[in-house]
């Protein structure tokens, strides 16, 4: 299991850009599949993007495709989420998550069950 700490959140104008980071500590980060989730006020936590342990496969929810890129640097034990042209609907607390699970389907990355480590979250506010 790894410990996760997000950073990089803040206030950004619509149409700008923002990069979130998630630093992992612990053992064997490379074997962990990872994901980004977000939670807007009054809403359930939702999947944003996920990436396989080696970084070769990535997954996105439809509302962020083409605007968001998930990546990871296993040498630095860090996960990233690059957000371009955000809009106010992207506002929320962003969480990174990691887990060791065998399933490689979108549904497995998008669900909560496979993840055993969660960060504390970082607030992203997009102003119009």
Low-confidence stretches: none
User: Which class best fits the helix and strand makeup?
Assistant: mainly beta
SSE pattern? EEEEEEEEEHEE
- Count of helical stretches: 1
N-C termini distance:
39 Å
Would you mind describing this structure in some detail?
This protein has 1 helix and 11 strands; from the N terminus they run E-E-E-E-E-E-E-E-E-H-E-E. It has one helix spanning 106-110; strands spanning 2-7, 10-13, 17-26, 33-39, 46-51, 58-60, 68-73, 78-84, 92-99, 117-118, 122-127. The strands form 2 sheets. Strands 2, 4, 5, 6, 9, 10 and 11 form a 7-stranded mixed sheet that branches. A 4-stranded antiparallel sheet has the order 1-3-8-7, with no helix packed on it. The longest helix has 5 residues, at 106-110. It is globular, with a radius of gyration of 13 Å.
SSE order and pairing:
Elements (H helix, E strand, L loop, with lengths): L1 E6 L2 E4 L3 E10 L6 E7 L6 E6 L6 E3 L7 E6 L4 E7 L7 E8 L6 H5 L6 E2 L3 E6 L1
Parallel strand pairs: 2-11
Antiparallel strand pairs: 1-3, 3-8, 4-5, 4-9, 5-6, 7-8, 9-10, 9-11
């Amino acid at each position: 299991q790894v410990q996760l700490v997000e950073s990089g959140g803040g206030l950004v104008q619509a149409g700008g850009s923002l990069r979130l980071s998630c630093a992992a500590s612990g053992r064997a980060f490379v074997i962990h599949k990872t994901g980004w989730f977000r939670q807007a006020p009054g809403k359930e936590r939702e999947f944003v993007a996920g990436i396989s342990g080696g970084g070769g496969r990535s997954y996105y929810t439809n509302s962020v495709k083409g605007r968001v890129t998930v990546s990871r640097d296993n040498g630095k034990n860090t996960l990233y989420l690059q957000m371009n042209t955000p809009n106010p609907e992207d506002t929320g607390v962003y969480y990174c998550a990691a887990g060791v699970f065998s399933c490689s389907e979108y549904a497995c990355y998008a669900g909560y069950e496979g993840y055993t480590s969660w960060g504390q979250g970082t607030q992203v506010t997009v102003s119009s």
